[in-house]
Amino acid sequence: MIEILHFGFVQRALIAGVFVGVLLAVIGVYVVLKKMSFIGDGIAHSAFGGVALGLLIGANTTISAVIFAWVTAMLIGISKKNSRTSEDALIGIFFAFTMALGVIFIGFNKRYNADIFGFLFGDILAVSAADVVTIVCVSALVLFAVWFFYKDLTYFAFDEEGARVSGINTDFIYFLLLTLVSVTIVISIKIVGIILAVAFLIIPVSTALMLTLDFKKLIFVSAVISVISTITGFIFSYAFNLASGATIVVTATALFGGVSLFSYLKKGR
Questions:
Q1: What is the enclosing helix (H) or strand (E) of 125?
Q2: In the chain, what is the straight-line distance between the N-terminal and C-terminal CA atoms, in Å?
């Protein structure tokens, strides 16, 4: 298997996979602790509308997906703050609306475009040099934002009311987190696809929570699990000609199952 590392597309896939894995793990910690998994799911599927619109008008699909996902996230957040409708209902409404728009945009597009399947299910082998540059730069920006607002984000994730009382602008932090989740999910689409993006955002963190409760260690362990899942899943997908996104998520789930079994047996002693 070592010889495949000489191929450019393999090198690009591994670089992109490692960066996305780390980014998903870091943001995933806040998503899991804040119980925002369903919001992440709605944002992920809203990106489908952005991808379909980008393909229709011939625009950069990453940019159109980011804009679409971010606008959806902001609308969900604003509606949550100013509506009596429950959060899960709002997410369901925007989830369905943006997916429906995506289907309509595809219907308007008379040209057959197989790229849409890559966005839905992920194709790590199709990552281009431009994609790698985009992933690295965006990952650096998102991680910098997390580092800069680390204390506020962490306080907000554990105790929103306490953060508000202590003087933190929780509304700003909430919308910042929605923005970071939106960007992270869209960047991960090339690796695991729209359908599986949220799963990979949650599984490594859920696995890490069974190994440590220390917050900083949780981020580190989540990142390690995420990177291992990405690289191992990539190897299996390449070796057996399987869908890369699905294989990566199945690998992460297998690790979750293994750690769950280990924890169960350990408690039984």
A1: none
A2: 40
Q: Are 52 and 41 in contact (CB under 8 A)?
A: no
Phi, psi of 184 (to 5 degrees): -60, -45
What is residue 167's DSSP assignment? T
pTM for the model stands at 0.87
Q: Encode pLDDT of 139-161 as tens digits.
A: 999 999 999 999 999 999 998 89
8 Å CB contact between 141 and 148: no
* C-alpha distance from residue 152 to each of 15, 135, 155, 156, 249 (Å): 30, 25, 5, 6, 31
| Contact indicator for 102, 51 with CB cutoff of 8 Å | yes
Chain centroid to CA 131: 16
Q: Structural domains in the chain?
A: 2-260 (1.10.3470.10)
In angstroms, the Cα distances linking 26 to 21, 57, 169 are 9, 34, 22
State how far the alpha carbon of 4 is from the alpha carbons of 15, 94, 114, 234, in Å. 14, 42, 26, 12
Is 216 exposed, middle or buried (CB count within 10 Å of its CB: 0-12, 13-18, 19+)? Answer: exposed
pLDDT score recorded for residue 269? 60
